[in-house]
Design a protein that fits this description.
Blueprint lengths: L5 E7 L5 E7 L4 E5 L10 H7 L4 E5 L18 H14 L5 E6 L2 H11 L4 E7 L15 H15 L1 H13 L3 H7 L10 H13 L2 H13 L3 H4 L6 E6 L7 H10 L4 E5 L6 H4 L1 H58 L1
Parallel strand pairs: 3-4, 3-5, 5-6, 6-7, 7-8
Antiparallel strand pairs: 1-2, 2-4
Helix pairs in contact: 1-12, 2-3, 4-5, 4-8, 5-7
Length: 333
């Protein structure tokens, strides 16, 4: 078995913020974009699998884990993260890449597509959404109310909110609650994945997190969906209560030629619930894209060959006519 080449590093983005990334393997790049507050760890099944034939790229958003916080809070936005992604592609020396987004990662990809459509070979969306997923979450406005309260508390007593936040996510029951709410399928996922997610979330800078969360609520990419022309795969979990299947169905209807795959029992983290099945779906989609590209290249090459052959034939005919005319002139003389 060949050893997989692993690399990691940082690059400076447009505002000087250092962004962390990791690459595994060699070949056509696939760049993975996680959900808000999530981690590179969430992509471990996919990065291992696809690094066998591709370069699998994972990275941390600004103010997430190994990436720096921006100096200006105004640069804690979806647009800033989308710019980071575009710069990451250039930093790694790629002209194009395949992109896979989970949850909030979909919004990042939509904004990045608006800014730089030329870098997209394909888009795969897992449990994603194009507009505010919070207002109607769980069929009521409870999450919006909790967010407004958290924002107000952070402005008035940030240290108190930090303590409350840490206590909430460190509670042993938090993982079970997250699962019951539809964030994870407790029968399929490894509990350690939920623990890693909760510990990671507790370590984030709350001011940056709340700013980005509000930006996520206000961002609407529905108009961008209609402009997406690259191959697109949409994966939906039927048991996802955070962003129910209707979110993915509406995106499927808006993105021309997109494919929709529904996973029974999939939660809001389908790539962790059923990693092997998700990998197979992604692989099938990418292989189809590869075959289509080869077919187009073959047709293009065939047309060029036919054109050359036609030009050559026309040239020979022209030469023959010239020779015939020359012989006639000689006979007259």
């Amino acid at each position: 078995m060949n050893s997989v080449i692993k690399k990691h590093g940082h690059f400076k983005s447009f505002d000087g913020t250092k962004i962390y990334y990791e690459t595994r393997g060699e070949g056509v790049p696939i760049i993975f974009c996680y959900g808000i507050g999530c981690q590179i760890h969430n992509w471990r099944f996919q990065s291992r699998h696809f690094s066998e034939e591709h370069t699998a790229v994972v990275w941390d958003y600004r103010a997430h884990y190994k990436s720096e916080k921006p100096k200006q809070i105004e640069n804690m936005s979806i647009e800033a993260i989308a710019k980071d992604l575009e710069i990451l592609v250039k930093h790694l020396g790629y002209k194009k890449a395949h992109f896979v987004g989970h949850s909030f990662g979909g919004q990042v990809l939509f904004k990045a597509f608006e800014l730089a459509p030329e870098i997209f070979q394909s888009i795969s969306l897992i449990n994603c959404f194009a507009e505010d997923p919070v207002s109607n979450m769980f069929g009521n406005g409870s999450v919006s109310k909790i967010f407004k309260l958290a924002k107000k508390t952070n402005q008035m007593a940030p240290e108190t909110l930090k303590l409350l936040w840490k206590a909430a996510v460190d509670n042993p029951l938090s993982g079970q609650v997250a699962g019951l709410l539809g964030g994870f399928n407790l029968r399929l996922i490894q509990l350690s994945d939920i623990e890693v997610y909760l510990r990671g979330t507790a370590s984030l800078d709350l001011g940056c997190y709340l700013t980005l969360f509000e930006n996520m609520m206000n961002y609407n990419a529905t108009k961008i969906l209609q402009t997406i022309k690259c191959p697109t795969l949409i994966i939906s979990g039927t048991k996802d209560a955070i962003t129910p299947p209707e979110y993915q169905l509406s995106m499927h209807k808006a993105i021309q030629g997109s494919e929709l795959v529904e996973f029974p029992y999939g939660s809001h983290a389908t790539q962790l619930d059923m990693p092997n099945l998700v990998n197979v779906s992604l692989e099938k989609f990418l292989n189809k894209k590869r075959k289509t590209t080869k077919k187009k290249a073959s047709k293009k090459a065939s047309k060029k060959t036919s054109k050359k052959a036609g030009t050559k034939k026309a040239s020979k005919k022209k030469t023959a006519i010239k020779k015939k005319a020359s012989r006639k002139t000689t006979l007259k003389k």
